[in-house]
Amino acid sequence: MPDFDEENKYNGLVAGIDEAGRGPWAGPVVAAAAVVLDKNLPAELLSNLNDSKKLTPAKREKLYQLLYEQEKLGKICLSVAEASVAEIDSLNILQATFLAMKRAVDNLKIKPAHALIDGNQNPKNFPVPSATLVKGDARSYSIAAASIVAKVYRDHYMQKLATLYPFYGFEKNAGYGTKKHIDGLKLHGVVEKVHRLSYRPIQEFLKK
Fold first, then answer.
1. Residue 195 lies in a domain
2. 175 near 21, Cβ under 8 Å?
3. Which domain does 127 fall in, by range?
4. For 9, phi and psi rounded to 5 degrees?
């Protein structure tokens, strides 16, 4: 379970950084930043914060709401940012993810002294000194919070996209290559600015 041990290694405020949406065939990649300003957070929040992938959608939604409630109380500072499908296609998914992470930090209302980034890849020229933390969303409260914000924000985005393009099952698959998504591509083709044209499965549909 996450704790504040990693954050406590640094002087000054620490931002946890995580992303959502590197694997899907459609939609933006999203990054979130979370800075805990007051570690005296509700037990309901601290006892349930974890890697977003280990939580049910209902629990993620609840924690998402709790996090933003704590932001209103001034205990947490949250930020979320995207890199578009066009940026993914022009830069590649890794560099687009780094771009979203940089934007998330730049968008924070309170600038941290350090950033802890989930994973093992540290972006160059980051806005603040940064370090990576493998499986950080299961080890750091700040990264776990960012993980939930990024995931839920992106799921909401894809649900809205599903109302415009109802053939691909985005409301359930979030743009991943499920059978529903593949069937939609077979019947209705690729949607420019929605599908990632640089991804090999999408390129295969463009050839048909």
1. no
2. yes
3. 7-164
4. -75, -10
CATH of the domain at 85: 3.30.420.10
Q: What is the pLDDT of residues 78-120, one digit of tens each?
A: 999 999 999 999 999 999 999 999 999 999 999 999 999 999 9
CA angle 173, 176, 181 (to 5 degrees): 70
Return the exposure string of 21-42: e unless at least 16 CB atoms fall within 10 Å of the residue's CB, then b. beebbbbbbbbbbbbbeeeebe
SS3 call for 116: strand
Can you tell me the distance from the alpha carbon of 20 to that of 30, in angstroms, rounded to the nearest whole number?
Answer: 5
141: its two tokens:
């409260």
To the nearest 10 degrees (0 to 180), the angle between helices 141-164 and 57-72 is: 110
Give CA angle at 97 (34, 151), nearest 5°.
50
What pTM does this model have?
0.96
Query: Strands of 114-118's sheet, edge to edge?
Result: 76-83, 29-36, 14-20, 114-118, 130-133
- The domain tally of the chain equals 1
Please write the tens of the pLDDT for every residue from 169-179: 999 999 999 99
Is 196 within the bounds of a domain? no
Tell me the C-alpha distance between 167 and 132, whole Å.
Answer: 38
**57 falls within a domain:** yes
